[in-house]
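F.,

This is the one I mentioned.
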């Protein structure tokens, strides 16, 4: 588990000589073991914020502090919308790439445990072409778990899936989070998904963190409960703004 503190984090890009402030003075506190959802209109800066946290983008300003469990440097796992499996390798071979080059005796056992965790134990010898979209996402999640992340960063991991598979995977993700005790940050366009999984949901608008809504409902959550629907409405009613897709 990892404790995360982000203060005044900013990152701009330039497009046709115009500055695009993708993330503007973001402040975020995420305690070890928290599940945090991030929602907001397309182009509001969600992926950029996630990349800054992952160290895949450098901030122009601000500070980011990650503290891992005592004595360990924090390990991060990142998963994007596209499962990014190598088509010429089997599921097991794809997962092996997540481990350090020097093999350790427990790697194979960890790999098989993670495949079982996502329900793909019987598919280790399959090639990605014979997996459905949901199965490929599960394999990508298992690959990320092989890094034993303290902090798992997920960018719309289920957005390409049908509503039924998506619901199933979000329940599985909730179970995995509970059993492995990681800190998770999930970017999603699906408010129900965010409310179902998160301790707090961050709402971004035009690059800024605009609101942080604590969910505070017992788990497992029932989407039909009035309190659940009330949290969804609270998020829907926030000012979502125009996003930035049309910037020219
Ligand atoms: N590498 C880049 N170069 C130039 N502009 C970028 C780059 N990455 C992001 N941007 C711009 O920064 C803004 C925020 O992009 P970002 O990808 O963070 O949005 P998002 O909230 O993740 O959107 P979506 O929901 O569509 O994925 C957008 O206006 C985008 O065009
Ligand atoms: Mg994005």
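My design for it:
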């Amino acid at each position: 588990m990892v404790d995360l503190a982000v203060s005044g984090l900013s990152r701009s890009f330039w497009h046709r000589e115009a500055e695009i402030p993708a993330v503007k003075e973001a402040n975020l506190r995420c305690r070890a073991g928290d599940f945090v959802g991030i929602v907001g209109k397309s182009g509001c800066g969600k992926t950029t914020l996630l990349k800054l946290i992952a160290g895949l983008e450098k901030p122009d300003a601000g500070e980011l502090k990650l503290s891992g469990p005592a004595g360990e440097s924090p390990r991060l796992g990142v998963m994007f919308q596209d499962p990014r499996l190598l088509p010429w390798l089997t599921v097991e071979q794809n997962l092996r790439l997540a481990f350090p080059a020097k093999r350790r005796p427990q790697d194979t056992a960890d790999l098989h445990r993670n495949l079982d965790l996502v329900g793909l134990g019987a598919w280790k010898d399959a090639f990605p072409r014979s997996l459905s979209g949901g199965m490929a996402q599960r394999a990508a999640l298992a690959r990320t778990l092989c890094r034993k992340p303290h902090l798992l960063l997920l960018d719309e991991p289920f957005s390409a899936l049908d509503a039924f598979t998506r619901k199933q995977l979000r329940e599985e993700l909730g179970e995995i989070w509970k059993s492995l005790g990681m800190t998770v940050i999930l970017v999603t366009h699906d408010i129900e998904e965010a409310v179902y999984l998160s301790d707090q949901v961050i709402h971004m608008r035009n690059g800024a963190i605009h609101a942080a809504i604590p969910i505070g409902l017992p788990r497992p959550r029932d989407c039909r409960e009035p309190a659940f629907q009330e949290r969804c409405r609270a998020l829907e009613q926030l000012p979502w703004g125009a996003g930035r897709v049309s910037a020219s």
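The mean pLDDT is 92.

Talk soon.
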